[in-house]
Amino acid sequence: MVDVFAVADILVQHIRNHYPQDVAIVGYYGSYLQGRATERSDLDFFFIPATTRGKDVELQFIIDGISFDFWPIRWERAEKMASFEDWGTTIITDCELLYVRAEEDYEKFLSLRDAAAAMKEPGQASTLIHKAEAVWRDSLLHLTKMRFARNDMDLSYCRTLAHEVTVHLFQSLALVNQTYYIRMWGHFREQISQLTIKPKQIEPFLDTVMFSHSIHDILQACEQMTADMMHLITSQKQSLPKARSYKDRMKGYYEEEKGMLNKIETACEQGHYETAFFAAIHVQDGLARILYAAEHGQRPGAFDLGDYRHYYKQFGYPDLIALLDPYDFEPLRKAVLELNELLEHHIRSEQVPLNQFDSVADFEFFIKGMITNEKNRN
């Protein structure tokens, strides 16, 4: 059996002799640290370069049939691991250090562990739910590939795509639970079983993905897991405390969107349906989304199936999209004028400041006042 720590000692001594200022950290993690190593286990070690030259220490090699990968992690990537953006968090949080260049490197590394611990605080729930949503959204690409390739897909390619969908599921579940995995290949399911928040029927679908020889069944299992995860993330987002924030969310919104309202009005007057079509949908959907964000303190989720339009309807804004008609522009034109009036009144009622002037002279007076105020503050 290869003495993996003797191998590590050789590499560390090589760094001390030839790269003492170029490598900040050397550490190891995984099976040897967790007491699970077998006779075929390598040592999962890594290093953090301190200089460009330090990257030259990277080395892949085999000793007596055991493969080793002495690989670099940049500080930037280590920071992503600590913030759960890179799901190798356990490398930072659950490792032993074999070499440290200087005290400041050690302190910097410890600060990463503190950052990772802070990600489990209640105040980070919203951040991690949004990250989970982004990760799961990526899985939809692989599910779409499965659907497009449905009739031409062999079992091997089907399982490959299903693997991608499943891995995204695992990562998304960890983020929703504000945690990370300590073990990787072949040990996800046992860790998922210990998670508090997860779809109720995940196990049978994972069984189908892993054991079924039916492309149809595997695709259905991936579709169901995708849907279940969508509902799970949506429910978690809805459970977050609301933070009504019109002043934060809608400052400058009306001033910017006024240009689009003018564009629709002009398109109606000129009978230009294409402009009216795209601009009206942009305005209505954008306003619906920002109203939701102002009421909840966050944008509607990627999996929101139109529920975010609730406030648009509740506040009585006209349905511009339903009024699109290439043969009669007048109802849309009138609705745009109505929306403009309602929106301005709504924003003012929420004490959102509006930069609206009747003349260039008024605007010049405003600018001069800004300069005066800035000088007074200084």
Describe this protein's structure.
The chain is of the alpha+beta class and about 375 residues long. Helices cover about 60% and strands about 10% of the residues. A five-stranded mixed sheet has the order 3-4-2-1-5, sandwiched between helices. β3 (about 60-65) and β4 form a beta hairpin. The longest helix has 24 residues, at about 125-150. The protein is globular. The mean pLDDT is about 90.
Layout of SSEs?
Blueprint: H1 4-18, E1 23-29, H2 31-34, E2 44-49, E3 59-63, E4 66-72, H3 75-82, H4 89-93, E5 96-100, H5 103-118, H6 125-148, H7 155-176, H8 188-192, H9 202-211, H10 215-238, H11 246-250, H12 253-270, H13 273-296, H14 310-314, H15 330-349, H16 360-377
Q: Beta-strand level of the residues, as a percent range?
A: 5-15%
Tell me the number of strands: 5
Count of discrete alpha- or pi-helical segments spanning 4 or more residues: 16
Radius of gyration from the alpha-carbon trace, in angstroms: 28 Å
Straight-line distance between termini: 71 Å
Q: Averaging pLDDT over every residue, what do you get?
A: 92
Class by helix and strand content? Answer: alpha+beta
Shape: globular
Along the chain, the helix and strand elements come as HEHEEEHHEHHHHHHHHHHHH
Helix content: 55-70%
Low confidence ranges: none
Tell me the strand order in the biggest sheet.
3-4-2-1-5
**Tell me about the biggest sheet?**
5 strands, mixed
